[in-house]
């Protein structure tokens, strides 16, 4: 599969935007045509999963219905409409000797995607890799194998209609875990592996990988209210950062409050969260503000709840917030609410996270909200790509040098 | 050391350009002051190395003299004069909801440098890491330990004069190989490892590393003469690409000649190389052109000689050259000599190498020649940085989002 993907990647790198977009639109059409077969396969997976005792949340991730399938097809068309990053010029300069340098985006090559039970990843990842000129090898969860096979068959049929080899999007047909190890060790055949799933999957990938990995780890996100915070913005940003969706990596887990923030603002913010059904684990000096508050334990700082639970601490101003985040944060996404621009700029500069926000919700940590159109994930490492990874993050660059016979001095 | 480096990195990330530049100029001054001690330490290393039976080339890499030491000091000052990449804005856009996005360069954090006998790497790597706001942990070759200790002492003295902690530039004081393993496994403490040395070192690093690696592998570089090549440019580019310096990674190893290139041009080019003392291992159809030519064996294609030896093949035009390079090249640096711009553009687009050149010598594959001022190495991987890595390659980025209370829709 790796060798076939390598050959397909060489072709895809030279495939123009129109052909890639047509292939993805064709794939969307085939997914709609084959809806019956795909949903039947999904029912088989669901039955097997239920028999195996999967829980409600896991079953929901696995489940497809007409609406979700329509979303998958629309997603393929949405990626087809995105600007093609391949060939985009990202740097240009000329040297005194007349050499003209141009840095242009080129595909990474072969991308391995290792994911769990969500079948939509099969189509989403295939679309993003194809549009960025990459071949991909997909290895989904065993519980979704029938659904993934049916989805994959529809997608490659759409590609074939547009004259693109099925080797451009390959699905590992087996469910044995050895296949994952083979992907992680395929140096020279696979250029990067992207794990999409829970912490145990990502941890295994990071431990075993001999190929580069673009991984998503913890999102312990903070919201800090500076003494200069506007009360209305504070209430809106805190409630949305925590409660819009509690299970996403950009959901805030800890609220940091400037110790000299007016107590009415603090009481109002905590009241909003409590009224919305959020459990608040607070520092001792806040406990008296509301009978529904519970005391925080040391383990609460730095915990990624991914649930309607939030830790709340007071800090001595922006310096204290920066120090708390450096100690307990995960360098993912952190926000400050402040009207004092000097405090805001200090926070934005000194907090070492992939995404830092001023007077905006941490839940904007998303490729779509960044304007990337779609994302393959949010990278928490520091190399290559940091934060949401869209089509550009699936490319590298080459340097083209144009001369008229220049040679280098001894 | 890793924890101390992590703390130093947090400080360095907030250190302004003037302070970093002053520290490097101070380090240069201290290196000049301590020249006697550094050269004495180097003599001790040289004596030990000679007794251990090191060969001439290895001894020469280890050797320091007044001129080389002056070069090291001047190198520190040169890096101090480079533009600071930290804080540089690499992207800016605004979303319809009014959120303003800014992507700014920030340091990688802690960089581990593993190198061999050249003591100048101690100063060069320290300077590039410091100027890009990174702390570094240096692990040089055992044979250079005394020299590296003396150089390092001078450098950190210069930093201390400028108020920068010595933890910003740490040298592993021991010579046991276990230290290398510890660096390679220090995930969370070291953000990237850069090996500087021969293939066996790089191979070990790539095999053992649990932290990201920016590595330099083979440089099997090609020069292709298209049928439209200008004879004078062909002769100049071929001679310089191979013979300017045969031991550098950008030195050409294989010459590809369009089978319909006029034979006089081919004879003249091969004559130049032979006259310059280059051994030419050629395809059968070229053997008759000069009595000094020797037949190539299959192993010659794809061999990195790093010596005055070159393989020469004929190919059926630019398509044949692209195919040969895809099969035998190492994706490092490849050049076409052609007056036909269509042939040139096809080569520049379809050859998948970090650097592709038109009518210029492959020996321009160098950070200095790119205008980077200095380089920490040439990356042959596809992620993060590709080709010469200067100060910008030692940074990552953060996304700063400025709003006025925006929250994300459900």
TrEMBL record, chains A, B:
Q: Which GO terms describe its molecular function?
A: glutamate-5-semialdehyde dehydrogenase activity; NADP binding
Q: Which enzyme type, at the first EC level?
A: oxidoreductase
Record-level GO BP terms: L-proline biosynthetic process
Q: Which cellular component appears as one GO term in the record?
A: cytoplasm
Q: Which reaction does it catalyse?
A: L-glutamate 5-semialdehyde + phosphate + NADP(+) = L-glutamyl 5-phosphate + NADPH + H(+)
The pathway to which it is assigned is: Amino-acid biosynthesis; L-proline biosynthesis; L-glutamate 5-semialdehyde from L-glutamate: step 2/2
Q: Keywords on this record?
A: Amino-acid biosynthesis, Cytoplasm, NADP, Oxidoreductase, Proline biosynthesis
Q: Subcellular location, in the record's words?
A: Cytoplasm
Q: Give the Enzyme Commission number.
A: 1.2.1.41
Give all residue intervals belonging to the Aldehyde dehydrogenase domain. Answer: 3-259
User: Known NCBIfam families for this protein?
Assistant: PRK00197.1, proA
Family per record = Belongs to the gamma-glutamyl phosphate reductase family.
What is the protein's known function?
Catalyzes the NADPH-dependent reduction of L-glutamate 5-phosphate into L-glutamate 5-semialdehyde and phosphate. The product spontaneously undergoes cyclization to form 1-pyrroline-5-carboxylate.
Q: What is the designated name of this protein?
A: Gamma-glutamyl phosphate reductase
Which species is this record about?
Answer: Sphingomonas lenta
Its encoding gene is what?
A: proA
